[in-house]
Design brief:
The complex is a heterodimer of chains A (288) and B (279). Chain A is mainly α and 288 residues long. In chain A, 72% of the residues lie in helices and 0% in strands. Chain A has two domains: 69 residues, no CATH class; 208 residues, MetI-like fold. By secondary structure, chain B is an all-alpha fold. Chain B has one domain: Orthogonal Bundle (MetI-like fold), CATH 1.10.3720.10. Helices cover 74% and strands 3% of the residues of chain B. In chain B, strands 1-2 form a two-stranded antiparallel ribbon. The model of chain B has no long low-confidence stretch (mean pLDDT 86). The chains are: A mainly alpha (288), B mainly alpha (279).
Amino acid sequence: MSNAPMLNEQQGRRGTSLMWPAICVLIGLLFFFPILWAALMSFKSTPAIIAERFPLTWKSVVPTSPTFENYVTLFTSIGFGRSLLNTMIASIGQVSASVVVATLAGYAFARLPFPGRDLLFALILSTAFVPLETILVPLYNVARALGLTSTYPALFLPFVANPFSIYLMRQSFAEIPVELDDAAHIDGASRWRVFWRIALPNVKPALATLVLIQFIWSWNNYLWPLVIIQNPNMQIAQVSLAALKSIPNFPMDGPLFAGATILTVPLVLLAIVLQRYYVRGLMTSGIR
Amino acid sequence: MLLPALAGLVLFQFAPIVVGLLNSLQSFNPFTHRASGWVGLNNFVEVLAEPSFHWAVLITMVYVVLILAITIPLALGLATLLNSRRPGTTFVRAAVLGALAASEAVTALVWNQMYDASTGLLNALLVTLHLPAQPFLIDANHAVVSIVVMTVWKDVGLAMLMFLAGLQSVPGSVYEAAALDGASTWKVFQRITLPLLRPSVILVMFIATVGATRLVTPILILTQGGPGGSTTNMALYSYNQAFSFNSPGHAAASVVCMMLLLVALTGGQALLLRRRGGK
């Protein structure tokens, strides 16, 4: 083999080694842009945002004289702290309750033989085809009849028995070799002890996945709190923030960006850092 | 052990479906919102006679078609890029997953700022490029496209992950064999990758169809269903009937219609794809 073709090949490689990272950075920035821009704008006063947005200059996307005033306004005069607390209460409720429910149900479907088990499991999975938005109105009627209007449990109870989560836990429990259970039973362990000491420690990655995905889903709620919570003091931050959008003659752009930053940036970073678990959760929910 | 799960599902999944079906056959006292009698299919007759409902059905399908038409090629392109493991792809993966994790309502508020007709960032960009400014959320056609673009940006990651899983399940030896036969990149993609991705394509179509049918939050935040109801799909129509127009019977009838449409769309896709696959 002569030297010339090898040299060409190397040059070709160097060419692509610069081109692909550039394309990737460009695509990545396009997807990051709305969140990044909101974060940058949150450090800019509302008058400056409006004055420097149009026409487009470098000032349109960069805080020229960075300030925390939007965050101060948000927590002092707008009362965002209370809304954020409500979001966290709803989130903790949804995550903890759904993990308990899915773990118990998942174990039962994976390990306890009972008549009609597969049929019942199929029936539960079939509810995954009915998204919240399609049953929003009748769900509201049911929740109202149960006296849940404007209560904290109303924020998370409808999401607690989740078919994806039950599916995820069933698959994870089913992957544990049955011999482990049998050995423990022979040693005289009760079924509860087997569940607690053998099954649960073996599904830790699935539990982490479940916690993460339910946490992200709970921060994505909007429509349900919007209809079921009529007391503004109990409304979650995602809904309260939207009210800042349209206050006539009183632009709230700065605080709006500050709130958007608080509600998206930590969540996005969490999903990226823990993407191994996040992707696993998404793939399970995708299997439906 | 099953009791909590069953209680939750019966109360918050099955009961609403049954209540929705029953309500669609009942009339309601407009002041107390209590059911006041059985009216057979009267609600359906009234809803189906509404021009605004016809529009909502049409626009629901427009969202589904547009979202599928953009999501599938884009997700396939992104998945192919990630599968190549070229330097920089981890950044793309992080950005797409980031958009997927972020709150739909909150990011819609940010897009609303970018779409603003008079001083929005996108129009500032267009004017700088000496292009005409666009009435993104003001004109009916523009508004539909604006909502679709935001939704695709937000959700394309899920489809991308499905395609990526499909691509990674194709054994490398298949490509080596094709390369030995001297097949071009496009030929390999068309003749080998695409057929092997069939299951992923079916899955993505199904998920994107359900996702596009249930689209409400971005519409509420970006256009509130306007201008003149032009961006109102069936999901928002039933929401409006229930919470703005005080007519639970019409809301329930449109909910039932929406569920039937969803079943028809996904069932139709399944039949179509199965028949073509059997050939």
